[in-house]
Amino acid sequence: MREWREHRDITNQQYGKEKEKRKLSEGPPVRSQEVDQGVMKYLEAHMNRKFKLAPSPTCACGQEDQTAEHILQRCPLLDEERKEVWPSPTPLQTKLYGSRQELEKTTTFITSAGLIV
Fold first, then answer.
1. Where in the sequence does UniProt note compositional bias of the Basic and acidic residues kind (predicted)?
2. What span, in angstroms and rounded, lies between the C-alpha atoms of 66 and 60?
């Protein structure tokens, strides 16, 4: 947990200026629902290696790759933040492609977890 927080703090320092420029009201970018999930996982892992966003695509929890699905649905390091935003189980599709209200919840989760998008 400590290693994950240290990595998050370093990442926040490196990209803090971009984060400040982006307004929360803009919300997260919306992706097409037709995007193949396998392609998304490949691209996320590729971006981690190419731009060294993380030492490896593996999440700090060590259970699996740090994908949007893992972070939003299963990462044990973010259980508290996830339960605070979504007290009951919520499908990934709703978190990523739902109504404006659902997307605002996703944005709140990302912000409270200290993640950089």
1. 1-25
2. 8
Q: Which domain holds residue 103?
A: 2-27+34-113
Residues in the chain: 117
Kindly report whether the global pTM for this prediction surpasses the value 0.90.
no
Work out how many domains the chain is built from and give that number.
Answer: 1
pLDDT 10s digits, 28-68:
555 554 455 666 666 666 666 666 555 567 888 889 988 88
- Cite the DSSP H helix spans in 1-117: 2-21, 37-50, 68-69, 79-85, 92-97, 100-113
- The predicted-structure confidence for 92-117, as pLDDT tens digits, reads as follows 999 999 999 999 999 999 888 888 76
Amino acid found at 33? Q
Is residue 42 within 8 Å of residue 68, measured between CB atoms? no
Written as six digits, the tokens of 40 are 């998304």
The single-letter code of the amino acid at 71 is: I
